[in-house]
């Protein structure tokens, strides 16, 4: 998967990314305010051999080399009980020598006999006091280390080169640095969460989910408050916004079919996707536009339009194909929503064999002489054989998928099966989307029409 694919996935899950980013970022920034403030102050001491002014240069050089070689030892001396316990006692600190040693940072500038002691404390005054008290204790400690009883007799003199001052600003926490770190960690958490959600939540929800499978997107039908009313409403009874949306989808289907008269088969990846309702309203939109439309109720496995709107089903398409009845004008008497409805009928017949049979082919030719558009409501496609049988005589297919319930793998299985069978996928309609998704031309650039 390339970088562009990851970007599309993140864009698809931007609400997750944004939510996690805000929550994690706020938590990290908030936690920064609970970190105790720390102030740091440094004292600089210089170590030199205790020589008289008449001492020769050679002796001085040897003495300087000795001091330089002892600097690491003097640095270790700072953290001993001999130095730190008097500091604790004199300042009345509520701590121990090991804990106080943890608050110190001791450095020796390269090639020098200088010792920098950096002390940290809750207040600037405490930090400066600790550093300066350490500097006061160091002469005696060094004298003892070198075998002298008092600092004046020590062969090494310790003097303060720069005393510790009270810092004006805290050294930690660094709010600017913490903010940058919090933003970076929150962004990484958001990206990770979005990718995880995208991996596990494979439901089709919007245009992007459809076009990511390289199939045309026709539009999204909003979820209605009253599902029963949506099931029985004719196209002319829909709200103006819904009629406009359905009309655009119907025109896109006619344009993509690119044949006269167009035969269009409606199917879906699973039952209950609203396929029959979408097909019926597309038929109603085309009929209102002045087309002679017939709707064949061929979904013998599930919902049937005729049954929902009260059209008798004693005779229908299964009876015509099985030879029980002959096609005559009486078959076109049942109308609803401005178009002719041919019911499913009462004969038991395999729907795949029916749609792929020669009798059905001849029936399509007869209907072509009477109607401008023929719409066939077929059952959901469950396997490759369904796709090849359903599209044997009708190559133009519209797939209806229910938003937030249909999995991408299900939709991909159907579209692959249809392409393998040689069908032309005019587009996908998403039903029951949470918000209105504008329809798109079926031959939109970047998506094939086959």
Which blocks of ≥5 consecutive residues have pLDDT under 50? 226-230, 445-450
CATH level 1 name of the largest domain: Alpha Beta
Distance between the termini: 25 Å
Beta-strand percentage range: 15-25%
CATH topology of the largest domain: Rossmann fold
Gross morphology: rod-shaped
Strand line-up in the sheet with most strands: 5-12-11-6-10-7-9-8
Largest sheet: number of strands, sense, barrel closure: 8 strands, mixed
Explain what this protein looks like in three dimensions:
It is built from 17 helices and 12 strands. The strands form 2 sheets. An 8-stranded mixed beta sheet has the order 5-12-11-6-10-7-9-8, sandwiched between helices. The protein has a 4-stranded antiparallel beta sheet with strand order 2-3-1-4. It starts with a helix and ends in a 17-residue tail after the last strand. Helix 1 (3-12) packs across helix 7 (175-200) and helix 2 (14-32) runs antiparallel to helix 7. The protein has 450 residues and is of the alpha/beta class. It has 3 domains: 3-35 and 173-199, no CATH class; 39-162, EIF_2_alpha (Alpha-Beta Plaits), CATH 3.30.70.1130; 204-433, Rossmann fold, CATH 3.40.50.
